[in-house]
Specification:
This protein is an alpha/beta fold. Helix content is 47%, strand content 20%.
Length: 723
């Protein structure tokens, strides 16, 4: 570091303060500072010198030139031999209050200068301030200091009056500059206000355009929804009837007839896939897609996809479809139908555009998220197309395009569904090497838990009773026949269902509309009802009596059906709009077979046990009883009941303790507290956390009591069927 002293000024009287200010301004001007910086430096020196004179009786001001690295610095040191500054920290923090103005000079100097340092003691105070020069001098510091010193000698010093006049001129100049700045600021504010008004008008116009676009999107979605529904019905009939011909239900076909029928079936399926994709996109655009999160086993999902996609693999024997299942079973909360749809789209695309090699599907858990990856060794996607393939109807031209069928909607729909599930989808691809689609999803997707029917609704409870003997609902001479009601407004669809059930234990009862179906239900008891939509099933369910000997299972056939609007509490199965005979018959077998369903009644009151047992046996249930906690726990271990009705006031266990034991051995949703006890609010909250429901005891003739019991049976029955 190089330094040189420029000059010094003794502070022996007040006129020397004026001299120090003048020398500070002259020195700053000679060193190249602009007028504003000269005023700042002069003001700082004047204030600190005045402090030295007022509080210490005098001192010395020394001006020096320093060079540190790339910077030249004007350093000014004010020394005095006074008593020191007692409240220096409070002054510098701005907390010191003084009637004489003490401390303001120090604070001003710290704000106006680049460097500021104070050292004080009982022997005196030293204040150092510094300002970086606008530019670094090329000459050495001593040479620069010599020139400045010589120039200062030539400058004539002025008296106090002249210095005051100069100070006033500086003040007036500063005020003029402030006024100019204020004027410029006012002009800028006016321009900003005008700009803001323009921005507000632009936003208003954008809002109008957004509303217009939203209306267009809604109209497009409504149009697509209506037109796809119009197309879907005849397409399903074509698919069903052509399948019946191919299955030789009406006899053999010639080779040419079979070939043409397969063409018809394949063309109808391709068009049906396009219709389904359009409808799904319309629902997504209109915000009508609702999530139905349920526990999903990733390992079981992979097994299902492996079976579903086997026909595609068999068509291309040069490609292997490999599923890398997680070594440790993984469960997530997600809309299983939509997740399966996303993976099916990606896997089927990979199989289409992979002439040979492998399509690999994997899943791995990272923290609170799960990452699915569909990787292939196919033809790859050029980089310029990778951002566009998620757009609707966009397809990349390639040599395999003539051999494969596609609409360009699968990836667009997949991206929308991934967004709904709270995840992201990304692509890495190289031409000739292959592609990898990666889906990053939360282990627990957004959305509420699956809807549960509300207790106390007679209609809902009445439509969802427990498993019953099919034979009990049909006349004795037809004990081997299981009646199934089919409701559809198309005669060809009903005809297809009737032919599918030929040579099976099931007999189709046909209805062309809801009124005809209601009339049939008044005359005969059926084991299952197959409808094209949830609203029709809901209407039929409302007409059923609250506790018949047999309550049918409800099956909805629709490609767009999901468990929305409470349908999870009513619908027992969903099938495609045009199910094949095997799938339909398997579903009917599962829903109408006499499955093992046991209900356990735990109560130390024999009369209460008998009342509940009588009600449960109306539904042909196996009922077992226990009058102590120990006996109940033993029966649960031995019989594994599907539903437990438990009174918590028992002779050998306290209520809360017994409930805790039951919670450990009874499966989730299978425990119902059945008691006449009046609970406190705290007890009620605890029991609600432990049990599926709280039902107050009542006689079997009490309609509200029967409704509550039937409701719990319905929930347990559906859980039992889906286990």
């Amino acid at each position: 570091m190089n330094s040189a002293v420029l000059l010094s000024v003794e502070l022996r009287n007040e006129s020397h303060i004026v001299l120090a200010r003048r020398r500070a301004r002259d020195t700053a001007g000679l060193l190249g500072f602009d007028q504003q910086d000269c005023v700042r430096i002069a003001t700082t020196v004047s204030e600190i010198a005045r402090n030295a004179w007022r509080y210490a009786g005098g001192g010395r001001v020394e001006f020096s030139l320093l060079r540190e690295g790339e910077h030249d610095i004007l350093e000014i040191t004010v020394r005095d031999q006074g008593p020191g500054i007692a409240n220096l920290k409070e002054i510098l923090d701005g907390r010191y209050k003084s009637t004489t103005g003490m401390g303001l000079g120090l604070l001003s100097g710290r704000r106006l200068m680049h460097r500021f340092d104070v050292k004080t003691s009982s022997q005196g105070t030293v204040v150092r301030v510094g300002k970086f020069l606008p530019r670094r001098f090329a000459d050495p510091v001593p040479a620069v200091a010599s020139r400045v010193s010589e120039a200062l000698v030539k400058i004539r010093t002025t008296d106090a009056v002249a210095e005051m006049e100069e100070q006033n001129r500086e003040l007036l100049q500063t005020l003029s500059n402030l006024e100019k700045s204020q004027s410029e600021l006012s002009q800028l504010n006016r321009e900003l206000e005008e700009t803001n008004r323009g921005v507000v008008a632009l936003y208003a116009e954008l809002d109008d355009r957004a509303q217009e676009i939203q209306k267009v999107v809604e109209l497009k979605s409504r149009f697509l929804s209506n037109i796809t529904h119009v197309f879907r019905t005849p397409l399903n009939s074509i698919i069903g009837l052509s399948r019946m011909l191919l299955e030789r239900i009406d006899g053999e076909l010639s080779v040419e007839q079979e070939k043409q029928t397969r063409f018809i079936n394949r063309a109808a399926r391709d068009l049906s896939d396009l219709v389904n994709d359009l409808l799904d996109l319309a629902k997504a655009d209109a915000g009508k897609v609702e999530l139905m999160p349920v526990p999903v086993s990733v390992n079981e999902l992979f097994a299902t996809l492996r079976g579903m996609l086997r026909p595609l693999v068999e068509q291309n024997t040069t490609v292997a479809l490999v599923f890398d299942e997680p070594q440790v079973p993984v469960e997530m909360i997600c809309d299983e139908r939509k997740l399966s749809q996303i993976l099916r789209n990606l896997i089927s695309n990979a199989l289409k555009y992979t002439p040979h090699g492998e399509v690999n599907v994997s899943a791995r858990v990272t923290g609170s998220r799960i990452v699915f990856c569909v990787r292939d060794t196919g033809i790859g996607i050029p980089e310029e197309h990778q951002d566009k393939i998620f757009e609707e109807f966009y397809q990349v031209r390639n040599p395999l395009q003539q051999k494969t069928k596609g609409t360009g909607l699968g990836l667009a729909l997949s991206r929308r569904l991934v967004d709904l599930l709270g995840g992201t989808i990304s692509l890495q691809s190289s031409v000739g090497i292959g592609s990898a689609f990666t889906i990053n999803l939360p282990l627990s997707s957004p959305g509420s838990t699956p809807p549960i029917p509300v207790a106390g609704n007679v209609t809902t409870a009445a439509t969802a009773a427990v498993e019953a003997e099919p034979a009990a609902a049909v006349p004795a001479e037809k004990e081997t026949i299981v009646l199934v009601l089919f409701v559809d407004n198309r005669v060809d669809t009903l005809f297809s269902y009737e032919r599918m059930l030929e040579h099976t234990p099931f007999k189709a009862v046909l209805a062309r509309d809801t009124q005809e179906a209601l009339a049939i239900l008044k005359r005969v008891s059926v084991s299952a009802i197959v409808t094209p939509s949830y609203p029709i099933a809901q209407t039929l369910a409302a007409a059923l009596p609250p506790s018949p000997a047999l309550i049918p299972s409800f099956i909805v056939t629709s490609d767009e059906t999901s468990a929305d609007d409470g349908s999870a509490g009513l619908i027992d199965a969903f099938l495609p709009a045009s199910p094949d005979a095997t799938h339909l018959v398997q579903t009917l077998h599962r829903l109408t077979s006499h499955a093992r369903f046991i209900a356990l009644v735990v109560d130390d009151n024999p009369e209460a046990r008998q009342h509940l047992r009588a009600l449960l046996e109306e539904f042909h249930l196996n009922v077992v009883e226990a009058d102590t906690a120990a006996q109940a726990l033993a029966l649960i271990k031995d019989q594994k009941p599907s539903l437990v009705f438990a009174d918590i006031v028992l002779p050998d266990s306290s209520g809360i303790q017994f409930v805790s034991h039951l919670k450990e051995v009874v499966e989730d949703g299978a425990l119902v507290i059945h008691s006449s006890q009046v609970f406190t609010e705290e007890e009620r909250e605890f029991l609600k956390e432990q049990a599926a429901a709280l039902v107050r005891k009542g006689p079997p003739s009490d309609s509200s009591y029967r409704t509550a019991i039937i409701h719990e049976l319905a929930r347990a029955r559906r859980r039992h069927l889906r286990a």
